[in-house]
Structures are given as C-alpha cells and as structure tokens.
Amino acid sequence: MLRRSASTTSIRHVSKETLTILLILSIRRFGTPVIKSLNTFIHNNSLVTYVIGPTIFPVVGNLVNVWLSLKRFKCHHRVWQNWAKKYGKILGLRLGLVDVVIVFGKKYIKEVLARDVFDGRPDGYFYTMRSFGKKIGIVFSDGTTWTKTRRAVLKHLRNFGYGSRSMENNICEEVKAIVDLRKLDAGRPVVVNHVFDVAIVNIMWKLVAGKRYDLKDNKLKHICDLITKSFQLVDMSGGILTFLPFLRHIMPDFIGYSELKLIHHNIYTFIQETINEHRATLDVSKPRDLIDAFLIDIMQQKEDSFTEEELQVICRDLLEAGVETVSNTAAFMLLHIVRNPDVQKQLQDEIDSAIELSRYPTLGDRSRMIYTEAVILETLRISSVAAVGIPHMAREDARLGDYVIRKGTFLLLAIHDLHNGAQWKNPQEFNPARFITTEGNLIQSDMLMPFGTGKRRCIGEGLARSELFLFLTYILQSFNLKIPNGDPIPSTEPVDGVSLSAKEFRVIFEPRR
Ligand code: HEM
After folding, report:
1. Hey, whose CA ends up nearest to atom 9 of ligand 1?
2. Percentage helix, strand, coil, to 5, in the chain?
3. Where in the sequence is the domain holding 219, given as residue range(s)?
C-alpha cells in the first residue's frame, strides 16, 4: 500500500504526543476515520502515513465505494478520476485484499513507467488464471521470465517479417478483403464494432502461425467473440476475482468465474490445435513462423528454453493484446468520422490529392498525409482504449512523490485522464487540428502515451499505427460513411472493460466511385 511521507528528516523516536497531534491533523485534513490515521508509522527513518483515499473497510476495503460509484460513473476510470479530484494525484485504495494505487498526471505516470522497481506485473488471480496459475508469457510476467520472453518473441516476430514490407503487404491484403466485403453490402446498414476483428487476427496470426482465415470464418469469429467477452467481464484492475479470489468457490457463476474458465478453455483448445498441427509438420531446418521457432527451441531443451505452456500463453498474449485494442480504436475512429462529416471530407480530400486514383494507399504515403495521421492521434487521445494501461506492480518498497509504495502494490496509470484533462484545449471536442502546427507539421505531444513508454512499452505500437492508417485510408478512398436514416448519432460514451469499447452502432458504406 501507499504511504505518505510526512517528513523526510530522520525520526527514530516519535513521542506519543507527536503521534496524537499528527493523528488529529490527518483526521482533520483528510476527513477520514481512525483507520487511516492508525497507519502512521516509521519507514526508513521517515514518518509515513497511508496515502489519501476513501475510507477502507475490513475485508472489502473500498469495493463497496467502487460498486456504488460505478452506478453513477459507469466506467472504472471515471470513478478513479472523480476520487483523484478529492484525494490527489496518487490515489490509494484497498480493493478487497489488494492494495491498488492509481497514478495521475504526466510526471508521475512517466516516473512509474521509467523505473525498474515499478515494472512488475500483478500476481492477482484473474491474471494468473489465464496462464495456468503461473506468471508466464509476455504481458503478465515479470522479472527474468519477462525479459527472456519479450526478447525471444520480438526476435522471432522480426525473423518472420514483423515491421517489414511483408507485414505491410499482409495488412493491405486484409484491408482489401474488408473493402470487398463491404462492397457486397454497400448501401445497407452494418454494425461496425467488430468488422476488423478477423482481419486483425489474420495479420498477427500470419507471423505466429503462418495462417489466414476467411473474414467470415465462423470458428475464428467465435474466438474473437470470446476474447471480446473476456475483456468485458472485468476492468484492467482485475475485478472481484483478483480482489476476493475465494469467492470463486462460493459464487462462481455470479462473479463470472465459470464463464471466464470456459472462455480460457476454448481459447487454449484453439491454440493447442494450432500448435499440434505445427508439431506434426515441423521441419527443424525450415521454421515457418513463431510457433515453429519456439517448438524447435523447446525440442533443443537448453537450460533456459521455454516450456509448451509458455508457448501457449505467448500465442494467447499476441492473439489478445492486438485484437481488442486495435479493433476498438478502429471502431472509435469510424465513430468520430461519422459524427463529424467535415473531418470525413478533409480526410477524403487529403487521400484524393496524395494518392492517385489508380492505386491503393501504402505506408509510404504517411509522411504526406498529415491530416490523416492527426485523425489517428486524436482518436488515440479522446478514446484511449487502454484507459489505465496494463497494471504494473511495485517489486520493492519504493518512494513515489511524497509517498512510499509498498512491495506488491498494484499500480494503474490514469492514461485516459491524461489524454482528456484540462491541459488540452476543449478536450471533449474531436479536433485533429490540435496535432497540426500552423506550418502544417504533425505535433508529437509528450502528453499522448496510448502505448505507454519505457521498458514495458507496447510491442505492437508500430503494427497498430500501420493498421489504423491503412484501414482508414483504404475505407475512405472507397466509401462515404453515413449514419443510417433513423439511427441516433452514435455515442462516444465507452463501454467499460479491460479495453474500452464503443457502444454498438451502424454505418452505411456508400461506394464513392
Ligand atoms: C491501439 C492499439 C494498442 C494500444 C492502445 C496498446 C496499448 C498498450 C499499453 C498501454 C500497454 C502497456 C504498457 C505498459 O505496461 O506500460 C501495452 C502492452 C503490450 N501490447 Fe499493446 N496496444 C495496442 C496494440 C497492440 C498490438 C497490435 C499488439 C500486438 C503485438 C500489442 C501487444 C502488446 C504486448 C505484448 C504488450 C505487453 C508488453 C510488455 O509487458 O512487455 N499491442 N499495449
């Protein structure tokens, strides 16, 4: 848990009277009952107290407050935002049995992302449940397992074309398929929230498993639906399964444990089948993709080689990390475009002048398409789907600002708040021009960090940005997007979850020529 350092000077012996005065002061200052003040104690020769946050109750901690506030604010990130106004930029909560700190503002967010001591991942049940009860894979592992896995994954992905021209070709192949499909239902309303899902999996799966699925493939659509469901069952803090994990034995259906268990089972069945197909046709002298490369590594049985369970979790991480984030961002991007016809017009003008009619867009066009890039940045800002990033964990007791954060505390980063706070002019307005200088150059703001920064920075940033650019330009080169007659203007209000998503909305794809 987080504690406030009341003094940086060395205080080995604090008299009872001094403690009483401090106790009274803290009650008056924070307006909270005795529980918080009792937490005053000596740490590394400094007098420290628990960080400011809502009153903590036994066993449930702040869970009841969260539950009540959610009724009003709908999304977790808004609840944290509201409390931060009252308690400050380093907000301390106890959620069930777990200490959680939510960090606000560029200065503290950057500090957390920059320091090794904060680069752990939480041990909570929700996170380890998806990886056979272990801290393995890339997204939710830490320490040497994480460094080893991240290095190996990046090496193998690059060997099979990650970040190269062949990956661009894969994205183009997928977006052409999307455009062809939309031409078939042109003029009719389409629910667009998940139109990119299968294409996004295909782009990653080509590198991971050397495989492509038809955009209408039911099996893959089902896997994508399961991922969406699992992302909507909890928020990024890990939910009740992390905070009161024993409840899974008492009310497994009510807290979503049974459903999540089934989802994990189905996703791993799909991954295991793919790995088995690879093993049956493996040629050790000619690895075809990331799965082959890891299988060869496993067969060689080196001291630090990976296990098959690790390979399964790596595949799952790559499958999930990219799908919901990019798909939800792309859906929000279309949503902002149909809400703002002037933005759509400017985008199409830029596409038409930068790209000859006879050809499709390429990533090489990006440097000349400043407005398009600004629309992508503005979407990543205003609809930050990774609202609190991916939780970090303090690996040791460590100081942050005026506080000491105890080993094991979860840290959530208020990225959505950073992107939508008062430091932006009219933050609620979708205005790509805010990212363009008067000379017409793109502004790279250091207040925009949708992919995090530092050692744990998202490994899919380049891919995500390329996908968003090609999705957007291909679609607007071919279609005008319209809200169907009679449908309401789609709401920008997000649906809560591990990744924020847009509420269901429909769009008509009207062919341009
Ligand atoms: C718009 C799309 C995306 C957004 C907004 C996004 C955002 C993020 C964020 C905020 C983090 C956490 C950084 C941290 O812990 O400090 C992250 C991590 C990660 N992302 Fe993404 N991401 C996106 C797309 C992708 C894609 C396409 C991939 C596919 C390769 C991917 C793979 C990962 C992985 C593997 C990690 C874990 C890195 C680690 O823990 O070392 N992401 N992402």
Report:
1. 451
2. 50, 10, 40
3. 51-511
